[in-house]
Amino acid sequence: MIRHLISAADLSRDDALLILDTAEELAQVADRPIRKLPTLRGRTVVNLFYEDSTRTRISFEAAAKRLSADVINFSAKGSSVAKGESLKDTALTLEAMGADAVVVRHSASGAPHRLTRWVRGSVVNAGDGTHEHPTQALLDAFTMRRRLGRLDGLRVTIVGDVLHSRVARSNVLLLDTLGAEVTLVAPPTLLPLAVSSWPCEVGYDLDAELPKSDVVMMLRVQAERMNAAYFPTVREYSRRYGLDGNRMALLPDHAIVMHPGPMNRGVEIAAEVADSDRSTIVEQVANGVSIRMAVLYLLLGGSESETERAEAAR
Amino acid sequence: MTDASGESPRAWLIKDAQPLGGPATDLLVRDGVITQAGRGLSAPDAQQLDAAGLIALPGLVDMHTHLREPGREDAETVLTGTAAAALGGFTAVHAMANTDPVADTAGVAEQIWRLGRRAGYCDVRPVGAVTAGLNGSRLAELGAMADSAARVRIFSDDGRCVSDAVLMRRALEYVKAFDGVIAQHAQEPRLTDGAQVNEGEISGRLGLAGWPAVAEEAIIARDCLLAAHVDSALHVCHVSTAGSVEIIRWAKSKGWRVTAEVTPHHLLLTDELACSYDPVYKVNPPLRTAEDVAALRAALADGTIDCVATDHAPHPLEEKESEWQVAAFGMTGLETALRVVHEAMVSTGLLDWAGVADRMSARPALIGRLDGVGAPLHGRALAVGSPANVVLYDPSARDVVDPAQHASRSRNSPFAGMELPGRVQATFLRGNATVLDGKLAR
């Protein structure tokens, strides 16, 4: 198993499947009366969040706690970071405190990658800028497999602001590794210039893609993008790329609708779609905890903790 | 002629050097001038230097150096920067205007010029700002800087682009009165808002905002047309794309007064290096693709790009040891420039040593008006009567670049850890040894 999880591209097919299978086993813990395993007792997991993201932070926190790890939440707001402490100094501080894993969310692409230079523990990317969000892709793949029974050959359409989406990047890479066929649909302004080099198809016409999709994943689109002329108005975006009830009817009967959250109801996804039976949005949240348990378990499971090492040395 | 420190230069007899890599010969240097050249020279009063196996080149001239003084002495000073220059084989550098205060008045330009005279490691030619405070809104007092003791001839808002077309036109027109040159940092600001790396496959993969080639090319095209329209001299800083090369080639074919430079790093490195997210590879304009590198090398070889300029941009460690987005743009380059050109241009057979002398000494001296009239004379062939600005370079040496060994105050070399050919063995500025045995001579 790899030591850090920075990019979905870090995962081989075997690694990715191992995480999904492990998450499947760990998901059963959630159904027990006592939802806790002793696996990571004595280990310290630091949630280092430079961006507000309550949902991702509590998901990692719940995952670590269910594995009995000690969890330290380090929010950049109101801490020394807000006073201008560098990422390096923060990393060295965490290192001195003996963090076995650092879960990092940062507005700068590549920040988790930089952290790996300064900490000995495992670094888990919980979303970096417009780069990647690999555990989101893993939980999405997990959700697809649970709902549809397979990933190989699955046709997944990802719709929206691909250019600024870390979720889209990680999903394209992971789904390709797992044998799914991805199509990106977006206004050309919201696709990276060299998207043709990505392992996926690209289209501009959502209605043409929906009838052949097993999964449609809607990405959050920020209204501010309009100010930089990525699209003329929110209404026009919604008309061309939003998923409403009429569009949902174009999907095959078995197809599911996904969204990484938080949603803009009425912009990229209509309320009736978000709340429909096809929607997996709430499941995705629950699956997120299982996936993050699996990631922490597998990244940390192979190595001894500081305390165990100290005890062994005695 | 005496140097700034007031010492009388000694006489030097350089034995068995190979000017421009040609047959070995001796050079006798007396009172700052090459007084004899030929085999078997003897001069008992002269200090003798065995230069067997060393290539002799005219002292290198850098069109584009950030010395950071005044204002950012934590990154570099005129003293440390010119020491780095001498160690790289340079005898003259053009100090960019983006200091604090900005070199936008005769006073600041003269201060930098005087600091250069005092340092004595090489001649420092201040570049004046085009616009007051580099703000891009009104012209700086270009005439006052031109008339000052610093005799400024090159004007640039480097780091920022003079993006206003009217202001650029006026600047080009205005400097005609004193044979000035506008050196443009070509970057359309709206197309590069927040830009971090070359826009392409790598930027998309890394999720870093793209710096599109068109943002450089559009400005270069506009500026070439403006220079033609007002018949003035445009110098294009740090050309980085294949498309820019095509535009400059076209402008030159029209006979327009357009010159251009390329940095050593754009001749050797590509945007793949950004995959490390290590900001030591963050530079403006950004590292481009292998196709761009090939086009830049070909353009330097055929003369479309006139010269190599380092864009030496020192930064303290903390400005580079951070997240990519917040890190400073820029790389050091003075101490590695000749070695990188050796690797990228000579080892590949694209330039011979005469070509290197042309692109790193003669042509930048010409563009910088280092003509011996209003400014010291540089870029001349190693012939009797020329000022003894000489580099002795060992082409057979080879080692791994270690920025900790550099004289620059900063360590942000993208070549750190790379094995490069060559070693600057000695540098002479008007007959004074600034570097001997690869080390500062004083």
> Which structural class do you get from the secondary structure elements of chain A?
alpha/beta
Fourth-level CATH superfamily of the largest domain in chain A? Aspartate/ornithine carbamoyltransferase
Number of helices of chain B: 11
Name the helicity range of chain A: 25-40%
- CATH homology superfamily of the largest domain in chain B: Metal-dependent hydrolases
H and E string of chain A: HEHEHEHEHEHEEHEHHEHHH
CATH topology of the largest domain in chain A: Rossmann fold
Roughly how much helix do the residues of chain B carry, as a percent range?
Answer: 25-40%
The tally of domains of chain B stands at: 2
Q: Architecture of the largest domain in chain A in CATH?
A: 3-Layer(aba) Sandwich
Strand content of chain A: 5-15%
Estimate what percentage of residues of chain B fall within beta strands. Answer: 15-25%
Largest interface: A-B, 23 and 22 residues
Chain-averaged pLDDT of chain B: 96
Number of strands of chain B: 19
What's the CATH first level of the largest domain in chain B? Alpha Beta
Plain-language structure description:
The complex is a heterodimer of chains A (314) and B (442). By secondary structure, chain A is an alpha/beta fold. Chain A has two domains: 8-132 and 287-307, Aspartate/ornithine carbamoyltransferase (Rossmann fold, 3-Layer(aba) Sandwich), CATH 3.40.50; 134-284, Aspartate/ornithine carbamoyltransferase (Rossmann fold), CATH 3.40.50.1370. Chain A has twelve helices and nine strands. Chain A has helices spanning 13-27, 54-66, 87-96, 111-115, 134-148, 166-177, 206-209, 234-241, 245-248, 271-274, 281-301, 306-313, and strands at residues 44-49, 70-75, 101-106, 122-128, 155-159, 181-185, 201-203, 215-218, 256-258. In chain A, the strands form two sheets. Chain A has a five-stranded parallel beta sheet, with helices on one face. Chain A has a four-stranded parallel beta sheet with strand order 2-1-3-4. In chain A, α5 crosses α11. Chain A is globular. By secondary structure, chain B is an alpha/beta fold. Chain B folds into two domains: 12-55 and 384-440, Urease, subunit C, domain 1, CATH 2.30.40.10; 59-367, TIM Barrel. Chain B is 27% helix and 21% strand. In chain B, strands 1, 2, 3, 4, 5, 16, 17, 18 and 19 form a nine-stranded mixed beta sheet that branches. In chain B, α4 (165-174) packs across α6. Residues 1-6 of chain B have low confidence and may be disordered.
